[in-house]
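Why do we care about 3D structure at all? Because function follows from shape, and shape follows, mostly, from sequence. That is the central idea of this module. The next example makes it concrete: a single protein chain, its amino acid sequence, and then its structure expressed as tokens.
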Amino acid sequence: MWGLRSSTLANIFLLLSVAMNFSISHASSAKQFQNETGRLALLEFKNQIYDDPFGALNSWNHSQQHCRWEGVTCGARHQRVIALTLRSKQLSGTIAPHVGNLSFMRSIQLGDNQFHGEISQEFGRLFRLRVLNLSSNAISGKIPANLSYCSELVTISLAGNNLEGKIPMDQLSNLKKLENFFLYKNNLTGEIPSSIGNLSSLTQLDFDFNNLEGSLPLEMGLLKRLVQLFLAANKLSGIIPASIFNSSAITVISVGANYFHGNLPINMGLTLPNLEELGVGANKFYGNFPTSITNASGLKVFDLSENNFKGQIPANLGDLTQLKRVNLGFNFFGSNSTGDLDFIASLTNCSNLRILSLSANKFGGNVPKIMANQLTELFVGGNQLSGTIPQGFGNFVNLIQLGLEVNSFSGIVPRDFGKLPNLQGLRLDHNDFSGQLVSTLCNNTNLFYLDLSFNQFEGGNIFDNMKIRLVVLCLLNLESLYIWWISMFPTINLLEIYPSHLLIVQIWRIFLCRPIFSKEQFHQILASWKSIQQLDLSSNNLTGPIPKELEKLQYLRYLNLSYNDIEGEIPKTGIFSNASQISLIGNNKLCGGIPELEFPPCPVIKGKNRGKLKLVAVKVLDLQKNGASKSFKAECKALRNIRHRNLVSIQGTGSTIAIKGSIGYAAPEYGMGLAVSTQGDVYSYGILLLEMITGRRPTDDIFVGDLDLHNYVNGALREQVSEIVDPNMTPGEETINGGREIDCIISLLKVGLKCSARLPNDRMHMNEVVRKLHLIKDVFLGVRVHQENFEA
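And the structure:
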């Protein structure tokens, strides 16, 4: 009996041992299989990468275990892949769907690379995923709705891509743990649905720079944990729900560049005690200044610009001692009376205040003698300010931009202006300043923009040491200054001196109006401009032959000598070898040149102009405002005053005018026999804008078949915009405005693309173009708050 029992127990122990060994063996095999699945998924990810300039994936090979590969993190216990971190590696390719096989994945951070393609539906299988960061790539398509299956998600960042379509909020609202939701800088459309109120854990919401529209749902007031709300630069409208202004946790509200309207709550400063940034600029808000805002003691950024606010600014605005940037421009603040700017004295308490913009309001009176002298940018242009500029500006040693334009200031320019070592931009135009310009201005060696036009200044040579790049002057009493000063600036990129209504329309251009030079001075000046790209000397009193120095300017791409009294033979080399790059109309004593210019041969000069007049100019006329010019002479005069190039040729035959659009500049509908229209002018403006920024003309050899300048820019805008921008337009290592240049260039390119859309109805209206350009300019000058590089 005992023997039988012993035998039975032995068999049981044997079977148990076999089972345990089998179980251990099976578990080991399963673990090995699962690890192999992770390794293969990573290798598939690598196979989709076709450019790895930093060698980030060099370690991804068979020589070492995949948990040791760069950017790969595995769990300590089970050696499964839990994180993939390859930020800012400049990787190019698509994201393989095999990533969905990494079922233990908790964090994917692939931001700031060059991934393209769509987000795979396989991401929805990563039910343990907590962080998904694919920002700053070129990913397209729609946001996968099945991300809602990733119920552990805390952060979704898909910003800075080319995503389109609606936000699948009804599905994503199931993500109860989601705290950070970043979708800014995409092409998303549609409304923000009410289901967003279900994201109860949300603390940061950033949908800036999309095409979202409609009103904000009342349910947004349910987001009680919301700290930062960014909705700027969309097409949102309606009234902002009052419940948002009652969320005491909020520190940032940025809704600029939309179509919101209504009053701001009178008690918002009390209901938002933690508010640090309020940006509602470029909307349609109205009403009085929200005086209770002075209770939000932590406020740092305050932007009410470009709305319809009115009334006085409270004298205790300086109670907001943490202020850094204040923009109240383009409203109706003030009453055109003395004391409107008394509140500025209180801002001396704001030791962190750097930017103050009060432009284009109804402020009257004088500039206070006591101001916050730590400012870097001060704008008070476009008001009704008067009197003299008080002494003491020399204490503003940090000042970079100063705008006093379009007021009624009088007297002389204070000597203190010469004590501003960091000053880069100074606008004094459209005032009543008088007397001689003080010689101390030459101490401002960093000044690159100066506008003194429409004042009563007298001459003097004051600019010997300045490194000016862009200057706008009005020659009333400054002819002697003009003669000396021009020749001493090898660094000038743009100079416009005018006694009329002409506008700056292009950079890298020298435009002179009514200069008085000796022959020797003029030739010396031309020889010194070795890097000049565009030169407009039209409508002056130039006489004699064409200077030979012009043939030697190897970078010159456009030359306009129209409407002078030049005589003699036209050269045939250099810039003169291309008829589309020069304009000589209105110089009846010229002869010779290449045949395309159609001037009579030398030395015989017969009669007046030939039958065809090649007008090398751009027609950019605001026909909606001023009407079309019907007579040939009026049209010629309009074209001459605008001073652009090579858009239309006008053929004069009696009383008829035939427009022959130059290739690439004329609107496509002109080729179908349609009449000249405002939309056609908008198209031409867009092409010119793209040419300015890219440095490529629409007739360049690279544009063949379906590839034109518009498509060239549009395609590159989705990949690397830096590859298409003219190197002269891009900033160097040192920037003057906090690195905002690239964003502004991209915004300008988008304006050019929308203006040059193939279908007329798809093009922007000129009033919208002007609005966009004003916004872009404000971003470049730094008057805008958070991310307000308002793209078209």
